[in-house]
Design a protein that fits this description.
The protein is of the alpha/beta class. About 55% of the residues lie in helices and about 10% in strands.
Length: about 525
């Protein structure tokens, strides 16, 4: 039987993404590291974004006094649920510690992975956060219920106004209310989570930033100064996924140094903002902060013209490390090695003798769902992982009696809906994540209580039995996923061995030798 992982690897590898601009048409275009050169493309509206539920938006919790509009007890529950979801969709995770900072922060990152991006950011925080996002994420069934209790705030975007979803007056009312809520929370020391690009996309470089995060950060600084509180800061975060739309991919999260935000010298602004009236900060300071954040965030993104080039940088990093007998041992090592290659290539003229074979070699590997880890030295590893095959099959069969009844239905629908959504390829892992995140309360809990009451009449003991059953389900799922990973490793080894014995494999090794010969160009 073909697994979900095999299906993803065959049908939509990292190179098959929805093109949003024409940058991939140029053979070796330069990275987009300047805000003025970044693409400015309005998002395609999904069916959900076309539905404006005014009554729910009007009744959504907000607060302009600095108190968090979310439920503090629910926040603890949501952190546990998010932790389960991320543990299930990521195979390997590396989270750096967020830098110490006393004031509130505006957490910002590149946005290519749907709801997985904000969930990953939440998982790394040192305090409660407040977030803003698409209006329908606050009003849709289930997700909206959770979002409202987290205190998330809605935004009606320009593209939704232009498409007639909302009139300008109502959009301004909702957006100003959101900006003031975010501003006061940041001034009070909470962290805010914002994707400055204003949309999720599929490019390996930043798109043009919206000014909203910088505007409420500056106004938060004004309120903080007025109240004698610490200044806020912008916090750039690097989110890295081995392949963002794969189930069981790897993730690496890193932090830049916070960018302090100082209060604008505008007479009376803090008082007007504190009274609940939105006021625009000076545009020159807004644009300065925007460009500063763009520059800092670009350093911790792929910042590549296309995914083919970025994969080539990773491959060069592997070959360079293998040549010096210091194999890259983690996804974090790969990201940092690729960044070193990017930095070296940005100095002087394009090094075509190095990049041309690297891009072709990376494409051959990617076409077979492989990457630089397939190499032993400069040769393809042709060994087949038969032992992992046996372990994987054994563990999945062993755990199936628990995993399939408790989690199988939602896993199936996550796969089915994720491959048929109109939200874009980045929404696939969103469905996987949501299925894993909501399973403990929507499926495991009722199943565990029902089973416990069958075993023992309602009592404190039956509650303990129910909790134990939930723990058994979770452990069973983790063991099942470990078996799944072993089977995936076996499948990868078979593709690797097949490529090694083919003419394309011989061509690949010739290209890798060319890359090794030209490493001195770095």
């Amino acid at each position: 039987m073909k697994t979900e992982h095999d299906y993803h690897l065959r049908s939509e590898i990292c190179s098959v993404v929805r093109p949003l601009n024409n940058q991939d048409l140029s053979p070796h275009p330069k990275p987009v590291s300047d805000m003025q050169d970044a693409p400015d493309i309005e998002p395609e509206l999904s069916s959900g974004a076309m539905k404006l539920r005014r009554k729910k938006l009007d009744n959504l919790p907000w607060d302009h006094t600095g108190r968090h509009p979310g439920n503090p007890y629910f926040w603890k529950i949501i952190l546990i649920l998010m932790g389960v979801g991320l543990r299930y969709i990521f195979r390997r995770s590396h989270y750096e510690k967020i830098p110490d900072f006393e004031g509130g922060r505006v957490i910002s990152s590149m946005h290519i992975n749907g709801l997985v991006d904000p969930a990953t950011l939440v998982h790394t925080q040192d305090r409660r956060i407040i977030s803003m996002g698409r209006h329908d994420l606050m009003t849709m069934p289930l997700i909206g219920w959770f979002s409202r209790r987290m205190g998330s705030q809605p935004v009606i975007r320009k593209s939704e106004i232009e498409n007639g979803v909302s009139d300008e007056e109502y959009a301004r009312k909702i957006n100003d209310r959101t900006l003031l809520t975010m501003t006061n929370c940041i001034a009070s020391g909470y962290n805010a989570m914002v994707m400055p690009e204003g949309k999720s996309h599929q490019d390996p470089h930043l798109h043009r930033f919206k000014t909203g995060p910088m505007r409420f950060a500056l106004n938060a600084a004004s309120i903080a100064k007025h109240r004698g509180l610490p200044n806020p800061a912008l916090q750039p975060v690097g989110l890295h996924f081995r392949c963002y739309h794969w189930f069981r991919t790897d993730v690496f999260v890193e932090f830049q140094e916070p960018i302090p935000v100082l209060a604008p010298e505008v007479s009376g602004a803090p008082e007007r903002l504190s009274s609940g009236k939105w006021e625009e900060p000076p545009s020159d300071q807004v644009h300065y902060l925007r460009d500063t954040l763009f520059s800092s965030l670009s350093e911790v993104t792929p910042d590549a013209p296309d995914w083919g080039t970025y994969r080539a940088w990773h491959l060069i990093g592997h070959i360079k490390a293998n040549t010096s007998n210091s194999q890259l041992k983690s996804f974090r090592d790969e990201v940092l090695a690729a960044r070193e290659v990017r930095a070296a290539l940005s100095e002087g003229q394009t090094k075509e003798d190095l990049m041309a074979p690297a891009i072709e070699a990376a494409k051959i590997l990617n076409d077979d769902q492989l990457d630089g880890r397939a190499l032993t030295g400069i040769k393809l590893d042709s060994r087949i992982a038969w032992t992992k095959s046996a372990i994987g099959i054994f563990l999945m069969i062993l755990m199936s009696p628990v995993t399939i009844p408790s989690t199988g239905i939602q896993a199936f629908f996550a796969w089915y809906l994720g491959d048929r959504t109109d939200e874009g390829i980045d929404a696939r892992t969103t469905y996987h994540f949501l299925a894993a995140m909501f399973s403990p309360i929507l499926f495991w809990l009722p199943l565990s209580i029902f089973t416990a009451f069958l075993v023992h009449p309602p009592s404190l003991l039956s509650i303990a039995i129910a909790m134990s059953i939930m723990l058994v389900i979770h452990i069973s799922n983790l063991v099942f996923l470990f078996g799944y990973d072993c089977w995936s490793d076996f499948s990868t080894s078979r593709r690797r061995a097949k490529l090694a014995s083919s003419d394309r494999g011989k061509r690949l090794e010739e290209l890798i030798l060319d890359v090794k010969t030209n490493l001195n160009l770095l």
